Amino acid sequence: MADQTPPPALAFLLSRRSCPAKTLGLPVPERDALLQLLTAAARCPDHGKLEPWRFIVLENKALSRLGELTAARGMSLGRDEAEITKGRKQFDDSHLAVAVIEVQKDSEKIPPIEQTYSAGGVCLSLLNAALAAGWGANWLSGWPAHDRGFVEVGLGLNGHERVAGFIHIGTPSATPPERPRPDLEQITTWVTE
Ligand SMILES: Cc1cc2nc3c(=O)[nH]c(=O)nc-3n(C[C@H](O)[C@H](O)[C@H](O)COP(=O)(O)O)c2cc1C
Q1: Which fold has domain 19-172?
Q2: DSSP secondary structure code for residue 95 in this structure
Q3: What is the pTM of this model?
Q4: Does ligand 1 come within 6 angstroms of the Cβ of 146?
Q5: Hey, where are the domains in the chain?
Q6: Is the ipTM of this complex over 0.95?
Q7: Closest C-alpha residue for ligand 1 atom 26
Q8: 44-101: per-residue pLDDT in tens?
């Protein structure tokens, strides 16, 4: 029988898993190491080479500021205490996060949805690059990611930009639990003719 052992890159993809953000602590990657992860993330399928994304690296003080802003925005929006606490927790707990920003570009050829897909691809590539490098990482959004007041004041986004994801990166304090994975029989159709 042929050797079924997957090559290392495929073995990684077959076993990769996120680490809950609350388990991510210090150390976090230094700038050079993070730049390499961002380089890997930006090597992403992108129809028309529009580069419809950019990165905002959030270090400690910025994360604290965003935690405070989440509380202020939550209160002005009339959100309850539990929602505010949950919304700010990702910033309060984190030591390093990258906001992946979808930047919609004008194009006659490439539909906006394809630019959105590409931004999602960048998020997964960054997550996987961090995991492959031995860090723990988690892709989060939460209500602040979708609140225009928060993203415009807190991250300086323009009208044609939105948050595709906050990728938190750090050293995991615990092995992440496995979670059920899709049943391939249920989601795969083989078309033979
Ligand atoms: C766009 C997007 C946003 C997410 N936002 C959150 C979130 O705000 N809170 C949360 O607990 N999980 C969120 N998740 C799920 C986490 O990333 C979760 O840890 C992940 O699905 C685990 O998958 P993995 O182990 O295959 O990497 C989000 C996932 C995606 C794709």
Answers
A1: NADH Oxidase (3.40.109)
A2: S
A3: 0.97
A4: no
A5: 19-172
A6: yes
A7: 17
A8: 999 999 999 999 999 999 999 999 999 999 999 999 999 999 999 999 999 999 999 9
